[in-house]
Amino acid sequence: MPEQTMQNQGMEQMVMPSFDWLSEGQLEKNALLAEHRNWLRKIRRERPHPENHHRVAVYIRYFNQTRYEDYLSAHKKQFLDTLSLCPNWEFIGFYIDEGSTAPNMESSSEWARLLQDCFDEKVDLIITQKASNVSKKLTELSFCARLMAALPKPVGIYFVSEDIYTLASYYREDLHDPYFLPGPDWKILSEDDTRREMLHD
């Protein structure tokens, strides 16, 4: 048998070693995140159109529980860099509440200020990293999304991690639907999953 053929056969039989043992604790979370992303690819979705004029507010729920120094500044820069790609969008400002989990909406002072600015027609698009920044109760999220969408000048909320826009046509078809989130099996991402998604995107 020619030497080149023997070498080719040897390469075909070679198997790369698995390094899964290095991250056993992360395998389950990574699998859940991959499943969530696959689910997102299957559903209908719309995003705020960059060519439309929007007055944009960014809502952040910040807590300093990360190994990255000055995480808040880096997070704000990510938003500003992305918004700069949409010249028709007018950036109104950041609204930042502190806390590791979303409390009742009424006790989030910056969220309350943001809603008032929406009622005063200063804002028509809210961007926030994830749904749980606002509330972990689906009924509260749905109520808030419907309330904003029903204003004389509708306000949309775009959740980055979940890739959900509350003024998408398929949500506005029926503002009385008790859940604006698609499908009964939808789950709010945990804090760890969201941070990992931000780092990989």
Structure description:
This protein is α/β, with parallel strands linked by helices. 40% of the residues lie in helices and 14% in strands. The chain is built from seven helices and five strands, in the order ααβαβαβαββαα. The chain has a five-stranded mixed beta sheet with strand order 2-1-3-4-5, with helices on both faces. Helix 3 links the parallel strand 1 and strand 2 (89-98). The longest helix has 19 residues, at 24-42. The protein is globular and about 45 Å long. The chain starts with a helix and ends with a helix. The relative contact order is 0.14. Mean pLDDT is 75; it is low at 194-201.
In brief, what are we looking at here?
By secondary structure, the protein is α/β, with parallel strands linked by helices. The protein has helices spanning 3-13, 24-42, 71-83, 109-119, 138-149, 169-172, 191-200, and strands at 54-62, 89-98, 125-128, 156-159, 164-165.
